[in-house]
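dumping these here so i dont lose them again. two proteins, back to back, each one seq then structure tokens. dont judge the mess
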Amino acid sequence: MILKHKAFARAGLVGNPSDGYHGKTISIIIRNFWAEAVLYEWDTLEILPGKENQNRFSTVHDLVKDVKLHGYYGGVRLVKATIKKFVEYCYRHQLPLHDRNFSIRFESNIPRQVGLAGSSAIITATLRCLMDFYDIDIPMEVQPSLILSVENDELGITAGLQDRVIQVYEGLVYMDFAKEKMREMKGFSHGVYERLDTSLLPPLYLAFKADVSEPTEVFHNDIRSRYRQGDAAVVQAMQTFADLAAQGKDALQHGDRDKLHWCMNRNFDTRRSIYQLPAGQIEMIDVARSSGASAKFAGSGGAILGMYQDESQFEQLQDALRKIQCVVIKPQW
């Protein structure tokens, strides 16, 4: 028996990063990039490292580049932590696990550290394999919170629910994390998740440039601290993000592309008002907007997402962004 599961990259359409602050978001899945876990029965429990966990390099410079991209542990720590949390969940809910062992390996082509949720994709794909192997059904609403606990509780990675929700549900999802909307299930809190019709989406582009990226846990730390301290600017910004998500949903449902364009741009402008952003990431936004397209961060930084009007504008956008060494694609959802 060989089990294979994929989890795809994602992009925040509007509302991010308020998911970690009782806000609202809309996200889409990006099927152009994915992480895949492969699990099969084995004599002993074995985790096989992916390509990113290499220990042989041509030069010391290659080693330094690898560490900057993948850290010192790569994805193996994600798989280990997922297995641990899965087993603990099953024990807590008295779900029996058979005594057969397995070997698991993973691969990912999701660009690293550009805010496309590569780490949570590895965890999501691994969790799907484990549920299949042990024939365990974890409610869909619970899965994103369980995945988040792998990163928050086991690995100390600061993150919100948004990425995990869209990677579990896929497609296009509106999420409400307001305190009064949060519910408890199986020991985990979850918000209200509403699937939207992907046919409502306008033409979108995704662009990224890995050499201006910054790890999510570094990017988010100061803002979270300021929010907890009641910093008025940060608290207001999180409310603005949530309001923009609600307006973005309305714009999608009524086909108001001008309003959605405005919401996406305002999302980034609000973010810029409270974050100290790297110059290279601001340049990406400015260059994209110079063509008339909207532009915002797809996640924590390094990749941007926006709307364009037609093929002529897309070609102009593509040419402009390529001049600053950006990869530009049309996302598949």
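---- next one ----
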Amino acid sequence: MSDMSEQSLTYPGGAEELIARWNSRREPFLFYGQALPPPDIDLAPLTRIQVTKNFTRKHPDEARAEGTYSEKHRRVAKEFIGNSQLAYLNGLLIANLRRSAQPPHAAALFQRLWAEHSDHLIAALDKRWLVSSVMTFADHGQTDRQRQLGQALRMLFGLMKLYEFERLFSGTPAHKPFKQNNKARGPLPLEMEPFSLRNGGLDSFLLAPIWDMARAEPVIGPLACHLLDALNADDRNVFRRLAAMRDDYARRKGVE
């Protein structure tokens, strides 16, 4: 086995570097005079009350020594003006739950939102916030099934964001399949076998178990299925491009 110190590494510091970078973005918010709503708050009225520009302004009676949470809740409010206060609260809870520590009732309150008002949230939130919501269940789901589903979708959507961003530099639009006669040569990483357009099933093997799990999960299952349905209908992702390439391959082989 070769010495890793002699290799060219993507992350020279290895696990320690990555974990330190990850933790540097997870410092808990400081609360000075502010607080999340109590865990037993009546959530139903928040579905009917809108966020106004007033939520984005600092008020004269606020503590002079502001915490980082005060700045964050005003910044998040800018994205929810005209939306429901419940959708806004969901955003604030996600922001807190991404940190290494948070108010002790934050996870339970987040779980309540989705257990009691998932239909409202699915309709009110854009897809970016829906993805953030389902990812949050990876660490803060109430059950093992919720956490497993959250973990699976966090990995799926996180990797999609990385490779779709890299694809932008190819100059190829997201909806346009790559040309099959322009395939580069060379091995895949970790000695992986190349994907087969004719018989490959990796796309199904990735998506089907997640979808199956989502259909059986009562709390976040509707959210997960909504996102997977949206992915299925979106023509700007690797799964649609591979499907188009597979169809083109079949047509060409059928003519020959």
